[in-house]
């Protein structure tokens, strides 16, 4: 398994990172253990969790994903071989069961981190990420930026200051962002420089053939500031595997089970997906291989966070690390991208 450096740190992370957000909802603890055993045997050393997982978020399941991961870590030992990432939630509708509604204040961040450490049964988290901003801006597919001057958001300075304390105390090793914008990312970096606090080392945003919006403002930052992309939803919730084409809803699959996951399944998404499915078939690739190998091939990418609900999916997705796309395929992808630009932002 290829590795890449996590930002300017000396940490090598596997090109494929194991996503976990189905554990505790679509996957049992036993299945989570099987996924972890297989992934680590295949050379994956990077695992991404969050205090909020599994999804869809619910009071009764919150924290189960980290608990399963912690139980596996305790059983396996050799904690230092692995790079464990987790996240603190920002404010969100329906999350009142998490600290009466999560905010990115000093107190919330400290409480969240302590609880994650306990569930993960570890003394430190390698990469602690801000799951989404504590201000209204464009993330989770929001279009049409509207500025709100009356908003009571937590200053980034307070958030970064709190995270910086956790680094000093050894509870977290590095800080990452998620669902951030170019302005937010540069603001974290500016404050780090001004205050002598740790710099953020990664940005975890959506990136897949149906949503390449990362390239507009953030890809340049990834290179120039050493804040590489941790790409999430590389299969657009499974859409890019082609299994939902023609309105199909396979039994037990995410978009069949949960109507809230509609970001990638509109008419434009289906049309663009069909074009990529056809391209994959023309070149003897599975649609998932094409979609994942494309993400793997980007030079602003640090790691591709895959998700799977079965071991067969997991094998196929990890296998994408061995697929090299030809110049011809890459050129065709760009032609399709010009026709279907950001069908599902
Ligand atoms: P994804 O690759 O877009 O979707 C993964 C889902 O697609 C699987 O759970 C599975 O669902 C289906 N699938 C996977 N491989 C397949 C294959 N080979 N053939 C057919 N179907 C396949 O990724 P994601 O789950 O949305 O995200 C991956 C990880 O990124 C998460 O676990 C999490 O760690 C992270 N993430 C972070 C954020 C954030 O806000 N920071 C948001 C989303 C995700 P079914 O079996 O149900 O179809």
What do these coordinates show?
By secondary structure, the chain is of the alpha/beta class. The protein has one domain (3-239, 298-326): NADP-dependent oxidoreductase domain (TIM Barrel), CATH 3.20.20.100. It is 38% helix and 14% strand. The chain contains 11 helices and 10 strands. The chain has helices spanning 29-41, 64-76, 106-120, 156-168, 182-195, 214-224, 254-257, 267-282, 287-296, 311-319, 327-339; strands spanning 3-5, 12-14, 16-19, 46-48, 83-88, 125-130, 172-178, 200-206, 228-232, 301-306. The strands form 2 sheets. An 8-stranded parallel barrel has the order 3-4-5-6-7-8-9-10, surrounded by 6 helices. The protein has a two-stranded antiparallel sheet with strand order 1-2. α3 (106-120) crosses α4 and α8 packs antiparallel against α11 (327-339). The radius of gyration is 19 Å and the shape is globular. The structure holds NADP nicotinamide-adenine-dinucleotide phosphate. NADP nicotinamide-adenine-dinucleotide phosphate (NAP) is lined by residues 19-22, 26, 48, 131, 178-179, 204, 232-238, 241, 243, 253-254, 288, 305-309, 313, 316-317. The site of NADP nicotinamide-adenine-dinucleotide phosphate (NAP) has 30 residues, from β10 and α10.
């Amino acid at each position: 398994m290829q590795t890449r450096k996590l930002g300017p740190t000396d940490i090598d992370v596997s090109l494929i990172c194991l996503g976990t957000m189905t554990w505790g909802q679509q996957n049992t603890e036993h299945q989570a253990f099987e996924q972890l055993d297989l992934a680590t045997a295949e050379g994956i050393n990077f695992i991404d969790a969050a205090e909020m997982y599994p999804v869809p978020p619910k009071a009764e399941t919150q924290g189960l994903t980290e608990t399963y991961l912690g139980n596996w870590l305790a059983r396996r030992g050799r904690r230092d071989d692995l790079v464990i990432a987790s996240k603190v939630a920002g404010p969100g509708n329906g999350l009142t069961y998490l600290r009466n509604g999560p905010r990115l204040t000093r107190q919330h961040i400290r409480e969240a981190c302590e609880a994650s450490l306990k569930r993960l049964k570890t003394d430190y988290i390698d990469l602690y990420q801000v799951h989404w901003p504590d201000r209204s801006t464009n993330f989770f597919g929001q279009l049409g930026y509207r500025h709100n001057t009356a908003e009571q958001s937590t200053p980034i300075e307070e958030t970064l200051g709190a995270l910086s304390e956790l680094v000093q105390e050894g509870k977290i090793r590095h800080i990452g962002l998620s669902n951030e914008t170019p302005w937010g990312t540069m603001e974290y970096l500016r404050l780090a420089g001004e205050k002598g606090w740790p710099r953020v080392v990664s940005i975890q945003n959506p990136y897949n053939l149906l949503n390449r919006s990362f390239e507009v403002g953030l890809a340049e930052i990834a290179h120039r500031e050493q804040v590489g992309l941790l790409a999430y939803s590389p299969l657009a919730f499974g859409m890019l595997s082609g299994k939902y084409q023609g309105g199909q809803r396979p039994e037990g699959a995410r978009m069949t089970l949960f109507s809230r996951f509609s970001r990638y399944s509109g008419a434009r998404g289906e049309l663009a997906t069909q074009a990529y499915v056809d391209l994959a078939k023309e070149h003897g690739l599975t649609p998932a291989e094409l979609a994942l190998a494309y993400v793997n091939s980007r030079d602003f990418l640090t790691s591709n966070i895959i998700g799977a609900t079965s071991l067969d999916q997991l094998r196929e997705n990890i296998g994408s690390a061995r697929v090299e796309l030809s110049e011809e395929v890459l050129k065709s992808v760009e032609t399709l991208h010009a026709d279907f630009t950001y069908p599902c932002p």
